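Because discrete structure vocabularies remain unfamiliar, it helps to consider an illustrative case, giving the amino acid sequence and backbone structure tokens:
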Amino acid sequence: MTNQAPAPAIVTSAPPLPTLPIPEQPSTAAVPGSSNTCISNVAFPNFPLQYQQQMQEIACHLQAQDGLPASYVIPTLQSASFNARAVALMTPPPPSAIPATPYPWWRYRDRFLRQSRLNQGVQFWQDHAALLHAVSRKYGVPGPILMGILNIETGFGSFQGGFSVLNSNLSLALALPGRRRFFLYQTAETLKLAQRLGVPPGTLQGSQAGAMGMSQFLASSYLRYGVTWNDPPGGPMPNLWQSSADVLASTANFFRGHGWQSGQPVLGQVSGDQGAVVTPFLQGKHPLAQLRAAGIQPETASRLPGSTPVGLLRLQTEHGSTLFIAYPNFYAIMGYNPSIYYSATVWAYAEAIKRVING
């Protein structure tokens, strides 16, 4: 790995952001709760009229609360545009009077364990085995777990999203009031990330939710956990679109920051039907010793202390309702995505790819 990361895989054919003039005599408005002032009497031509006031508030927030200069904020927001498709894709469906049939975990899992996905994993392993071992040694996160993330998120980089991250974050902040604070924060982080990368914010590409690169990092995660493999602090920014080394190191760094514990298990299927009373353990976390005392034992014993907080999950496999013990590393994966199905599938793919690779 050289000390110069390649340029991010952004839309290089896109023209630079136009430098739009700030009004010659702009008025200023005070931001509530702040003594700072901001540019306010500007229009944002690519956003519907109903959102103009909110866009002015967002512009003020970015200046006063996030410390971004008006000379950067105003032209950037005026060049951005509302993306109705991102909003439609991210808007939850209306509640139905008819209860939905539960979607079993094994069907979700098998979408990502198809033979084509396993073949992609084998190829990725063959191409990057030494790197995967090195990253695992440094961060303590097994290579197959990292591969499970890349498999689910982007099919090992084969589909990374074609949305403008800035447009998505702004549109979602405007159209989803319940998540406004979150997407406003991601908007600010996107502008800061673009500054660090030295690229126009509008050229950063990702998913409709504003996630970027092979591992689909949000802007805030990119800034906090993104690392350039084997480069010293203060070096070039990591390239999470094209550099497998930076992607693997950054994803492992994310897990370490969310409590990953080297050498510990993720999930363990409960051994047999021993008549144990499991209902009290199906909510929340409990000391491992309590599960053992209740007769709930994993098929593969662990050496974790009895005080280790674990969860008990009931997942539908192809063999029916199945109990699993979820260890702390399972919840570290949930820091990436809070879905139990997602985290269990990362683990399942890691187990499957290990079987394939080891013959």
